[in-house]
Design brief:
The protein is of the alpha+beta class. The protein has one domain. It is 56% helix and 12% strand.
């Protein structure tokens, strides 16, 4: 009986909580998985830590007058990296006014764009989205300032 009372109390608190919103196009599964992979967005102090955690930063080889930026270094959380890239493909379709997509729109619409180039652009947008989503989840910025249209998260009822 005591356990049933505790469960009822937790359910009541959950129902009273405001449901978080997510961008149009971001699947509920991706949203939930991202939240579970990161756990606490406040543990990151700056955008560099987010980029490093996702593994979406370009590798670099710099010496004297020479600077070479290669492919992404893939250090970090591979599950989160894959979710962010999938999320960007969805955002491109359902949330085209997002500032990361607007920044790359001209390149994405070029006639001579190869598949490899398009994938590199998507990775760049995913890196930007990871930082922007961190800013949204920690309250540093609103989704509307980023050009994201939001929808409430649907809860599953028993």
């Amino acid at each position: 009986m005591a356990i049933d009372e505790q469960i009822a109390a937790v359910q009541k608190r959950m129902e009273e909580m405001d449901a978080p919103a997510m961008p149009h196009g971001m699947a509920t599964v991706i949203f939930q998985q991202m939240e579970r992979e990161v756990c606490d967005w406040n543990r990151f102090e700056n955008r560099k830590q987010i980029g490093s955690y996702t593994g979406l930063c370009p590798s670099e080889d710099t010496s004297a007058q020479r600077r070479f930026q290669g492919s992404i270094n893939k250090h970090g959380n591979p599950r989160l990296r894959h979710m962010l890239i999938e999320c960007v493909w969805l955002l491109m379709r359902w949330n085209p006014d997002y500032r990361g997509i607007l920044k790359w729109r001209d390149k994405l619409l070029e006639a001579k764009l190869t598949k490899a180039s398009k994938k590199k652009i998507v990775v760049a947008i995913a890196r930007q989205f990871a930082v922007d989503w961190w800013r949204v989840r920690t309250g540093r910025i609103t989704p509307e300032e980023l050009g994201l249209s939001m929808k409430p998260l649907r809860t599953i009822s028993a």
